[in-house]
């Protein structure tokens, strides 16, 4: 039972945070909040399992899953912030919800300081998108 949960973590992170073309995003849609919360809890669980992996005989699987989650977050957050920077009116809310989820996940994996920096980068990107939209309307 633990094996299935642990092995699902990287896939859930990737599914939620993968960059999507605007054509795949419904107007003003967002990530499902309960799915984000469940994934965040799963990341916390895998992190906790990592500390007791040898006692539970799941060390290799746990370390691999946690490493994959770290990799997805480390390599994917930049493209999420870039996507937010260039988001239009239709996809902006969805891209913001992805970045918000990434910030939550990064807080669990890399710590609050890293997540705070990511949040600030996202804020700058969102402001740049807002300024770009304002310039287009003027």
Summarize the structure.
Helix content is 80%, strand content 0%. The chain has 138 residues and is mainly α.
How are the secondary structure elements laid out?
Blueprint: H1 2-17, H2 33-51, H3 53-56, H4 59-85, H5 92-109, H6 112-137
Helix pairs in contact: 1-2, 1-4, 2-4, 2-5, 4-5, 4-6, 5-6
Could you explain how this protein is built, in words?
This protein has one domain (2-137). It has helices spanning 2-17, 33-51, 53-56, 59-85, 92-109, 112-137. The protein is built from 6 helices and no strands. The longest helix has 27 residues, at 59-85. The chain is 80% helix and 0% strand.
Biggest sheet, open or closed, and with what strands and sense?
Answer: none
Q: Which residue ranges are poorly predicted, with pLDDT under 50 across at least 5 consecutive positions?
A: none
Strand portion: under 5%
* Topology pattern, helix = H, strand = E: HHHHHH
Cα(first) to Cα(last) distance is 57 Å
- Count of runs of 4 or more consecutive helical residues: 6
Using brief descriptors, characterize the structure shown:
elongated, 6 helices, mainly alpha, 138 residues, 0% strand
């Amino acid at each position: 039972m633990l094996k299935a949960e642990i092995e699902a973590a990287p896939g859930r992170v990737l599914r939620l945070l993968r960059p999507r073309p605007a054509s795949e995003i419904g107007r003003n849609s967002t990530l499902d909040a309960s799915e984000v919360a469940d994934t965040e809890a799963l990341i916390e669980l895998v992190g906790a399992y990592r500390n007791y992996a040898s006692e539970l005989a799941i060390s290799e699987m746990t370390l691999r899953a946690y490493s994959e989650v770290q990799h997805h977050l480390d390599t994917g957050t930049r493209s999420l912030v870039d996507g937010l920077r260039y988001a239009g009116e239709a996809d902006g809310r969805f891209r913001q919800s992805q970045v918000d989820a990434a910030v939550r996940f990064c807080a669990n994996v890399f710590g609050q300081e890293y997540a705070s920096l990511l949040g600030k980068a996202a804020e700058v990107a969102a402001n740049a998108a807002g300024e770009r939209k304002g310039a287009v309307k003027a």
